[in-house]
UniProtKB/TrEMBL annotation:
Highest taxon listed in the record's lineage: Bacteria
Name of this protein: SDR family NAD(P)-dependent oxidoreductase
UniProt-recorded Gene Ontology molecular function terms: oxidoreductase activity
Domain Ketoreductase intervals: 7-181
Family: Belongs to the short-chain dehydrogenases/reductases (SDR) family.
Keyword entries, A-Z: Oxidoreductase
Coiled coil: none
PANTHER family according to UniProt: DEHYDROGENASE/REDUCTASE SDR FAMILY MEMBER 7B (PTHR44196), DEHYDROGENASE_REDUCTASE SDR FAMILY MEMBER 7B (PTHR44196:SF1)
Pfam families from the UniProt entry: adh_short
Biological classification of the source: Bacteria, Bacillati, Actinomycetota, Actinomycetes, Streptosporangiales
GO cellular component term of the entry, any: membrane
InterPro entries per record: KR_dom (IPR057326), NAD(P)-bd_dom_sf (IPR036291), Sc_DH/Rdtase_CS (IPR020904), SDR_fam (IPR002347)
Oxidoreductase in keyword set: yes
């Protein structure tokens, strides 16, 4: 396993789900971890677990949808840690809603939190990383970035935008010592599927993977320097199959969506 002894990491959305487990895994690997989310009482619990491995870990309660506050947050973390070596942009919101039922502001909110905010945080921490000649910029994307999920247009678009930004960034940063990585998870067992303001999920949640698989993928990419990792990794084949036959892919997803709605016994609310 990769050693992060003496390194500092920052994980957004560390109060629950994937972010909480990624934060703990980074602490286990030796990093002092900074935690960010809105729910302070849950962050305290993640912090206590991180401090068992990395006593210098710290937390910041912040609403990352407030774009004007992101640069100040980055400055506060850099001041506390003297620089950030690993940034994991994990915080995001779902939006399970058919396009014909979607209000424009819902799309805006998703893009703001899932795309604009992590880009702002990344751009705020990048100069310090470049100056030190090292760093890992990790994004938690989604297979939705590559596979156009039904009833998730805004969410899929936010992850596709993040992925496109990360691809270009990986090239732009060549030679700086700073690397970009993105993990594209499929179904993971978290609260994402029970948050209010969403249709019930179409997917069968009994297939969901434990968040630790995403944390292992983050550590794997930091260790091997590669750009992208699907979780589970066989989704890479599905993405390349789609790229080779988009018409066939869309026809197949229409059929799958129809079948799932029938199986769930209701039209989406
Ligand atoms: N679960 C899956 O199947 C799956 C699949 C693919 C990708 N992902 C991605 O994995 C990441 C983590 O999601 P999850 O599944 O672990 O869901 P989750 O348990 O709902 O975690 C979301 C995290 O984001 C934080 N967050 C949400 N809005 C925020 C805001 N305005 N400001 C600051 N923090 C905010 C939440 O904390 P607070 O509410 O305390 O602010 C929470 O810690 C997301 O990027 C998601 O898109 C998940």
């Amino acid at each position: 396993m990769v050693s992060l002894t003496g390194k500092s990491a920052l994980v957004t959305g560390a109060s629950s789900g994937i972010g909480a487990v990624v934060a703990e895994a980074l602490a286990e690997a030796g990093a002092r971890v900074g935690l960010v989310a809105r729910r302070g009482e849950l962050l305290e619990k993640t912090l206590a677990r991180c401090r068992e491995h990395a006593p210098g870990s710290a937390m910041w309660v912040a609403d990352l949808a407030d774009l004007d506050a992101v640069a100040g947050l980055a400055a506060a973390v850099e001041a506390e840690f003297g620089g950030v070596d690993v940034l994991v942009n994990n915080a995001a919101m779902p939006k399970r809603r058919r396009v014909q039922d979607m209000a424009p502001a819902e799309n805006d909110d998703v893009l703001q939190l899932n795309y604009l905010s992590p880009v702002r945080l990344t751009l705020a921490l990048l100069p310090g990383m470049i100056e030190r000649g090292r760093g890992h910029l990790v994004a938690i994307g989604s297979v939705a970035a590559r596979l156009g999920p039904p009833h998730e247009a805004a969410y899929g678009a936010s992850k596709a935008a993040l992925t496109a930004f990360w691809e270009s960034m990986a090239v732009d940063l060549d030679g700086t010592g700073v690397q970009a990585h993105i993990v594209q998870p499929a179904l993971v067992d978290t609260d994402l599927f029970s948050l209010p303001g969403n249709e019930p999920p179409l997917s069968d949640l009994s297939d969901a993977l434990p968040p630790r698989e995403v944390a292992d993928a983050v550590l794997e990419l930091i260790g091997n320097g590669r750009f992208e990792r699907y979780v589970p990794d066989w989704f890479a084949e599905m993405a390349s199959g789609k790229a080779a036959d988009v018409e066939g892919f869309i026809a197949g997803v229409k059929e799958w969506t129809h079948d799932r709605i029938q199986a769930l016994g209701a039209e989406p609310a």
